[in-house]
Amino acid sequence: MRALALLLCLGATAFAGKLDEIRARGKLVVSVKNEGPASPELHKDPAHFQKRGYELELAHALAAKILGDASKLELKLMPKKTRLAALMDDHVDLAISMFAIPLDRSAAQVDFSQPYFVGGLALLLKGDSKLVKLEDLDGKKVAAVDQTANDPAPEWNRAIARRGLHATLQRYPTFALAAQAVESGRADALLSHDANIRAWVEAKPSFKMMAGLITREEIGVAVKRGNADLLAVVNAVVEELRKSGQLEAWAKKWKLPYLL
Fold first, then answer.
1. Could you tell me which of 23, 58, 164, 215 has the fewest CB atoms within 10 Å of its CB?
2. Is residue 12 part of a domain?
3. H-run or E-run covering 59
């Protein structure tokens, strides 16, 4: 009888869903962006703190839905390259870190929720620049931050190749140094994600953003493949927040573009 009871107990545990596991634990564990340097000007991502704040709002909303209490949330700050690995190894329940949803989701290592944010590559210009469209950069010099995560070079190369354009990509260690290259005329534009450029322009009105996005990226919550019950709840929460206008309100609060 004891052996049978043990087998039944083990079986129930093995087939329990991810939501049951989280509720039994009493907290939702989420991997999020690391804090980065104290000064936004030294950070490779000028909108780092805005995007992180926006995503923390979503993490608390998910904890409230799953556990009935927004405070039942444990945040794990990790470098971007380790966040998906932690998710797949069950060290965290979700990863919320501006992950772009791949066009072919079947090829991804994890599942993604429906998008909670939309962004894309854009160009930063001097305020008095005469450049108005991507074609104007043919033969010009474009600055970009030297980074492995969120490297814009592959998408940029595809975008200009489709248009038959050629531009020299110059690398700089920080956004601030890349912006200085634009300001001094050593580069004609700076390539980055639109949220970063908007944050910089707001702080530095001597710059402007070229109208329009070069690429469009939908951003979703990463969920370990197979956790269908958790993914369904995340999707429901994101949909509810979008329909109610809460995602847009958070974007406004954190000074982020809202393109959903």
1. 164
2. no
3. helix 48-67
Q: Coil, helix or strand for 222?
A: strand
Structure tokens at 57: 């709002």
Dig out the tokens for 34 from the structure: 């690391």
Q: Are 41 and 176 in contact (CB under 8 A)?
A: yes
Q: What's the pLDDT tens digit per position in 12-71?
A: 333 459 999 999 999 999 998 876 655 555 567 888 889 999 999 999 999 999 999 999
Residues 46 and 98 in one domain: yes
Beta bridge partners of 76: 31
First and final C-alpha spacing in the chain: 57
pLDDT digits (tens, 9 = 90+) for 205-247: 999 999 999 999 999 999 999 999 999 999 999 999 999 999 9
- What torsion do the CA atoms of 225, 230, 233, 234 make, to the nearest 10 degrees? -60
Residue 137 falls inside a structural domain = yes
Q: Which residue is listed with tokens 């450029």? A: 197
